[in-house]
């Protein structure tokens, strides 16, 4: 089980857990909140079989990575990603993010450029900017995020139950596209995450990526479900596609936020077509 050290906190190191499988052009997968790199199970299998070297890692605070008290903002997340690419000396990278992971992709390109990157895929994206402001009238009211933080503070375990309900649209998909066992496994990963990091990520969601989007100078693919209850398509993927010149947009009919699992066949087909 490989780990990458990206810093220190008091007497311990801050380590990022990653898995590195297969041979060929490297694909780096960045998971969404509140899961881990294991959420890419169905994509890793397909990518390795198609001849790609596939690397999935756990964001700091989540999965098997360290749980420091700080660093839960996108400048740090992007630096963690840059360290992984540098230490493994990955080039011609196919960079794929889901949900929060699309923020790392966007901020990485803005801060570090595209020298190592061939193409990017943004699934259920968080850019360009979620928060409602006078210059961003299509965003979400601050009160919504305040309520989320209050719910996490009151009962983080109950919050994750409700979050995952909307993540997978369980009222429509349970027993059809996602099993109770998958939901239970997702909940276990979610509640095992850092309590501090879980709360801090809510503030990270409000990062303004509008200027970062201009740095996406490689071919991009956006995939999102039109039934996404976590990051509604009109406020995120639709606007993002309009802002990226070299971009393809795929909309998954009735797709929830967690489409890498619920619609894995469709996602994998689009990924492999685009990556080739």
Concise structural overview:
The protein has helices spanning 41-49, 74-87, 100-112, 142-154, 156-168, 170-173, 180-192, 195-204, 210-213, 237-243, 259-262, 264-275, and strands spanning 3-9, 12-21, 26-30, 53-57, 93-98, 117-123, 220-225, 247-252.
The main sheet orders its strands as 1-2-4-3-5-6-7-8
Strand content: 15-25%
What is the mean predicted local confidence, pLDDT?
97
- If classified by CATH, what would the architecture be? 3-Layer(aba) Sandwich
Secondary-structure element order, as H and E? Answer: EEEHEHEHEHHHHHHEHEHH
Structural domain count: 1
Q: What are the segments in which pLDDT stays under 50 over at least 5 consecutive residues?
A: none
Roughly what percent helix? 40-55%
**CATH level 4 superfamily:** Alpha/Beta hydrolase fold, catalytic domain
Text of the CATH class: Alpha Beta
Might you state the CATH topology name? Rossmann fold
Q: Mind summarizing the main beta sheet? A: 8 strands, mixed
Shape label: globular
Strands, count: 8
Number of helices: 12
GO molecular function, one term: hydrolase activity
InterPro entries: AB_hydrolase (IPR050471), AB_hydrolase_1 (IPR000073), AB_hydrolase_fold (IPR029058), Epox_hydrolase-like (IPR000639)
Domain AB hydrolase-1: 26-263
Keywords: Hydrolase, Oxidoreductase, Peroxidase
């Amino acid at each position: 089980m490989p780990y990458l050290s990206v810093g220190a906190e008091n007497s311990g190191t801050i380590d990022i857990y990653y898995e590195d499988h297969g041979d060929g052009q490297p694909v780096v997968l960045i998971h969404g909140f509140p899961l881990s790199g294991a959420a890419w199970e169905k994509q890793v299998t397909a990518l390795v079989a198609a001849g790609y070297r596939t690397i999935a890692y756990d964001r700091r605070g989540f999965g098997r990575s360290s749980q420091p008290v700080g660093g839960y903002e996108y400048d740090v997340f992007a630096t963690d990603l840059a360290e992984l690419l540098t230490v493994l000396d990955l080039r011609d990278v196919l960079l794929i993010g889901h949900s929060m992971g699309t923020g790392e992709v966007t901020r990485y390109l803005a801060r570090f450029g595209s020298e190592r990157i061939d193409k990017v895929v943004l699934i259920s994206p968080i850019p360009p900017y979620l928060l409602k402001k006078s210059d961003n009238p299509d965003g979400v009211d601050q009160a919504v995020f305040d309520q989320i933080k209050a719910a996490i503070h009151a009962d983080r375990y109950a919050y994750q139950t409700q979050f995952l309900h909307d993540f997978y649209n369980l009222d429509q998909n349970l027993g059809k596209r996602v099993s109770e066992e998958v939901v239970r496994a997702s909940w276990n990963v979610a509640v095992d995450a850092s309590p501090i990091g879980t709360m801090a990520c809510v503030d990270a969601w409000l990062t303004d990526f509008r200027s970062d989007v201009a740095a996406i100078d490689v071919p991009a693919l956006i995939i999102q479900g039109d039934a996404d209850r976590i990051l509604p398509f009109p406020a995120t993927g639709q606007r993002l596609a309009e802002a990226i010149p070299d971009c393809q947009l795929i909309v998954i009919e009735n797709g929830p936020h967690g489409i890498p699992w619920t619609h894995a066949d469709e996602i994998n087909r689009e990924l492999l077509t685009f990556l080739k």
